[in-house]
Design a protein that fits this description.
By secondary structure, this protein is mainly α. The chain is 93% helix and 0% strand. The chain has one helix and no strands. The longest helix is centred in the middle third of the chain and has 25 residues, at 2-26. The radius of gyration is 12 Å and the shape is rod-shaped.
């Protein structure tokens, strides 16, 4: 269970970073 939550957190962080990069590139 702990590994699942940790993996989910990493995925969320990755998607957030990708969103920031995409937004920065578009702007």
């Amino acid at each position: 269970m702990f590994n699942f939550t940790l993996l989910l957190g990493l995925l969320l962080n990755a998607s957030l970073l990708r969103g920031m990069l995409v937004g920065r590139i578009q702007n």
